[in-house]
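Sequence and fold:
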Amino acid sequence: MNYVITGSLGHISKPIVQQLIASGHQVSVVTSNPERVKDMEALQAKGLVGSVEDSGFVNGAFSGADVVYLMVPPKWALVNEEWIDYQKRVVDNYVQSVVANQIQYVALLSSIGAHMGSGAGPIDGLAYAEQKLASLKQVNVKAFRPSYFFYNLFGMIPLLKNMNIVGSNFGNTDEKLVLVHTSDIAEVIGNALVNLDFKGFSVQYIASDERHPNEIAEAITKAAGKPAPWVTFTDEQALQGMIQSQLPPTVAKGYVALGKGIREGNIQADYWKNRPGLGKVKLVDFAKEFAVAYQSADAKQ
């Protein structure tokens, strides 16, 4: 079968491409970076270079495909546009192209919290994607909702290095944070794409571990050789910190809304009602990755 994979060769997309190639399928990979084409060809995949914000390009990229894997890439250079508007534009291009090319199967990289519909920052665009795809009655769609990425914790390295703390604008409640590793995400989605055993519209959560932020702080900071506590910031403190880190205000506000949703118990509410089996990678495993990243940041100074 012919597959089109969006998301270039990222932590999730690359293992999916490798699994599909190993299963004997034809795979094309969408990228905005022409330099990645040689890496795709080395995997025996075809590179399709263009922008997912270009409806004509997306329509052409999906031509001849039986199955597509959709992810909305982040855009950090937003200046005069709201994050949700960018996300909706990409989603609309995807959906129109799925319809125009009569795609049979769609796998969507969505997120925990998409059940909310709105009020979850960057997840709002994925909720919009789920809603649009669910309306396509002739297409088999599976929306995968991974939880909080372990990799997001790498963003706390400057805090640990400069202030001897880690934290966010959540963590001061009894609720555990649901964590996921990209390798576990890739395995679940890759298997679904190979088997194509989903019909109609369905949702599947993906998670690797469930740990309280205090446990997370203890594990990753001890592994880094600098034990430190988890600190829960106010929303305003979190916003100002992200803006000082050069995030565009619309992106920073989105992440604050996401953290608030976790703190108030809304983001993970539907997950606790529909808990999946947990993946292979646990906090203790990721702590080793965190330590390597922390030491690498030290070495660059």
Residues 2-148+180-206 form a domain with the Rossmann fold fold (CATH 3.40.50.720). Residues 83-100 form the longest helix (18 residues). DSSP finds twelve helices and twelve strands in the chain. The radius of gyration is 19 Å.
